[in-house]
Amino acid sequence: MAESSLMDRAAQIAQSVLAGDLRLGARLIRDLDDQTKLAELVLTQLWPHTGRAFLIGVTGNPGAGKSTVVDSLIAYYRKAGKRVGVVAIDPSSPFSGGAILGDRIRMQRHALDEGVFIRSLASRGHLGGLSRSTGEIVAVLDAMGFDIVIIETVGVGQGEVDVVALADTKVVVTVPGLGDEVQAIKAGILEIADVLAVNKADREGADRTVRDLLTMLELRHIEPSQNPDAPSSEVEIIRTVAVRGEGIAELAAAIARHQEQTAHLAAGRRARRARRELRDALLGRCAQLVDGLLSQHADLVDRVQRRQVDPYSVSEQLLTELFRGTGA
Amino acid sequence: MAESSLMDRAAQIAQSVLAGDLRLGARLIRDLDDQTKLAELVLTQLWPHTGRAFLIGVTGNPGAGKSTVVDSLIAYYRKAGKRVGVVAIDPSSPFSGGAILGDRIRMQRHALDEGVFIRSLASRGHLGGLSRSTGEIVAVLDAMGFDIVIIETVGVGQGEVDVVALADTKVVVTVPGLGDEVQAIKAGILEIADVLAVNKADREGADRTVRDLLTMLELRHIEPSQNPDAPSSEVEIIRTVAVRGEGIAELAAAIARHQEQTAHLAAGRRARRARRELRDALLGRCAQLVDGLLSQHADLVDRVQRRQVDPYSVSEQLLTELFRGTGA
């Protein structure tokens, strides 16, 4: 009975969220973070209404001005009458869970605009947590009817790159005058770029950066199996000075061109995102079960810690207990 | 019978690795990466011989010169007669799996030294893969009898921070003259620092950086539950010019002081690492099972992708199939 009234409440919340209730949407996202049963039921109801938003991933080096680029893109899309949701993943403290305040404050100019919805996500420290939460928040924003959802993340770190890799169009933001080691990392994330933005392009060295990027793009080698979604055409390089809004219309146009040119791949991208969402849900549930198992077997954990037994055999043993003989 | 001969081979390999056979050690690490059954059996045998190495985590901003600091520390410890193993985690491409060549080349000066063993680990793209592999490689180096194991990783990204957070002494390397956003990230990783190194301290702005760090340290707030291992004493700030070896003896001395001051916490750290190793082994095995499940149920995945069913209900359904009613 409690179960069925929970279902009813979930259905009501889902309906309001689908109707665009921002306050309930924000609350749902908070509840998802706390993994409440109610929030999970709501998500179940929202799923059929997802898969419509256009996802833009924005990544790049720390200091490249990603937030300012995102901020300007929001303003641009709003003028075009589009509703924009943003998920910003903070690479800041895993301990305090704190956000980079400056970034958030900068985005506050959209705070009173009902057509903009920004959520920061601090990394939570549990394996797979990052991508799981991101996928769920994107699903909520998608169901809420935002035309465009922007995922902003720093371009270093496996989890962070994974999160952005499934967007429809991936924008990598870079900046003139970074050191060598940073350039090397940039070379790493270059491979996921559909559009490149050279921000702070009024700085000295911008021409050189564009030339370097062109060279790197020529050398770029993408295995089709690794990026089935690689743009067939050239990757465009757009110069921006996001803080003054310069080059943002051009950036948006390049994103639109990529969207158009890869329209035939959009269904495949949506399918991969759905598969990923399923996998993340499974892994998230497994992590809960594993943590439960570990607290139930403090004795075994203790013996591993004393080096009396090894963690690999114990893990097999615990899984055998958990699984119905599925080869574990 | 095949099983028992595999066990025999594993025992032989384990014995040679314990005796310090570098070639077999290198091969074991490669095999672990490929998740071969033999490698896992060897690891099982090595476990009782782990927990002796002193683990130093080195992290910091891209461009701070972490590799050079590590390189100089290796040289320092070698002169002191200690054997040093290094696990370097590359934040480079998740797609190509490529390494930052420069870093590796720089470390080649130790290539002929049997007392130094360096392994690069490219991120593999599967959830939890990063920390799982790192823990296993550390276990191998530990069992091989390296006195000191250094884990070097870029200080951005949840997985990367997690990996370094369990070291005995965490060194955060920074550098004068980074931009604002980068400083903010530094504030994030500052919380895990036991010792701070200001590298390239001959650069303009070094005094200012030290002052800023002192201020940040004063403001630093650590929840005991989040960092049970926080140093009771002040965090030392050491100036280095690693490329010339300057300040490295001082850095090593600060690390030694931290080791000494927190000696009573070392057992707790080892215990947490062992628990983490067990959890990672469990999650790694779960990920294998989940992937198997997903390929067996292409039909369900397809229905999720078509939005006919939602991933959250399907995940419960699949887990019920997998688990023996453990609440799934």
Characterization of this structure:
Two copies of one chain form a homodimer. With 328 residues, chain A is of the alpha/beta class. Chain A contains 13 helices and seven strands. Chain A has a seven-stranded parallel β-sheet, with helices on both faces. About 5% of the residues of chain A have low confidence. Chains A and B meet through helix 3, helix 5, helix 6, helix 7 and helix 8 of A and helix 3, helix 5, helix 6, helix 7 and helix 8 of B.
Biggest interface and which pair forms it?
A: A-B, 97 and 96 residues
Name the CATH superfamily classification of the largest domain in chain A. Answer: P-loop containing nucleotide triphosphate hydrolases
Strand/helix succession of chain A = HHHEHEHEHEHEHEHEHHHH
Percent helix range of chain A: 40-55%
Principal-axes shape call of chain A: globular
The proportion of residues in beta strands of chain A is 5-15%
Count the DSSP helices of chain A: 13
Class of the largest domain in chain A, according to the CATH hierarchy?
Alpha Beta
Question: What is the rounded distance between the termini of chain A?
Answer: 37 Å
What is the CATH architecture descriptor of the largest domain in chain A?
3-Layer(aba) Sandwich
Query: What is the domain tally of chain A?
Result: 2
Task: Give the strand tally of chain A.
Answer: 7
Radius of gyration of chain A: 22 Å
Largest beta sheet of chain A, briefly? 7 strands, parallel
Largest sheet, spatial ordering of strands of chain A: 3-2-4-1-5-6-7
Mean pLDDT across residues of chain A: 81
Low-confidence stretches of chain A: 92-103, 124-128
Here the CATH topology of the largest domain in chain A equals Rossmann fold
Oligomer: homodimer
Structural class of chain A: alpha/beta
